[in-house]
Amino acid sequence: MKKVLVCVGTRPNLIKITQLERCFRSYPDIEYKLLHTGQHYDYNMNDIFFQQLGVKAPDVFLNINQGSQIEVISQIMKKFEEFILDYKPNLVLVPGDVNSSFACAFVASRYNIPVAHIESGLRSFDKTMPEEVNRILIDDVAELFFVTEPSGEENLLKENKIASKIHYVGNSMIDSLVAFMPLIDKSEIRKNITADDYYLVTFHRPANVDDSKNLKIVAEILTQISKKRKVVFPIHPRTRKRFHEFGFENVIENENIIITEPLGYLDFISLVKNARAVITDSGGVQEETTFLSVPCVTLRQSTERPITVTEGTNTMCELEVETLLEILNSIDKGAYKKGAIPKFWDGKTSERIAKEVNEFLTNH
């Protein structure tokens, strides 16, 4: 048996691999295992995911302790090393750009185990973002590159990666959207929040929430947009903590701002699908809104997913109140772009990945 080990550690990366196990069943000589590092440990951001979606639970759970980024990375490396020395996988497959993906890819490469990277080649060109550094380092040790959009392929070629190892397969996160849409449409979250016309807001990037000056701007943004309509804000635990630390807790006590705990996948995507617009600093939400044709405003200076801007429904915006309000006014007037769904964002990306992995292992 050829052993394929898929490594995840956060909910966003779990969403990128929900359909992989099913697709690998088409290759009976491949043994598929899912390893979870434990990087995300909150119940609402992790365990509930498997319960809601009926996704097979991880075969391996490293159960790391929480700490600084470096502490987490070093723990993952040590425990992952112990596991692969015993299991001896033929290929390690990592999605995205989180610390778990980097740590597992790095250790695998040290033992000459081929690494395949889902969402390869994405670049924001902003190395102050830990995710950007992770993406670059993972691609430096990878042997198979699975890209979601043309920019990924272009970036990898500029970095002198071998063209035959780059595979434009599409977006595996969209596979989950397609597969679980019947369940998403059954979500009753909107009944619980009692808002039909609303903006959906997410903020979690350290640059926006860990800096008191920037969080003050975020607070002003929330105050101003809540004057236009209801705001639904599933608040990240760290973001909630910062609002209290920096003295802005009165902002999120506004009756027009509906604060929720982190939501399960089905409820969150239901809110995305039915929002007037999504205001975010997330990466993946840019892609989900593009597929669902929902206006998205990303409050960052750069994006690693440019196709969501050039073809999709995403607009980049500085962390600045007036510019954001202008964009929201264009949405209200029906003057905002409609967007289109990019090539290969069709729910079949996981099938393409499984096929390329099988061919690689057959010929390797």
Structure description:
The chain is α/β, with parallel strands linked by helices. The protein folds into 2 domains: 2-171 and 345-363, Rossmann fold (3-Layer(aba) Sandwich), CATH 3.40.50; 182-332, 3-Layer(aba) Sandwich (Rossmann fold), CATH 3.40.50. Helix content is 45%, strand content 15%. It has helices spanning 11-15, 20-24, 47-53, 69-87, 99-110, 130-141, 150-158, 172-184, 189-193, 206-209, 212-225, 237-245, 265-274, 284-292, 307-310, 321-332, 349-363, and strands at residues 2-8, 30-36, 60-61, 91-95, 115-118, 144-147, 166-168, 198-202, 230-234, 257-260, 277-280, 296-298, 314-316. The chain has a 7-stranded parallel sheet with strand order 3-2-1-4-5-6-7, with helices on both faces. The protein has a 6-stranded parallel sheet with strand order 10-9-8-11-12-13, sandwiched between helices. Strand 12 (296-298), helix 15 and strand 13 (314-316) form a beta-alpha-beta unit. The chain is globular and about 60 Å long.
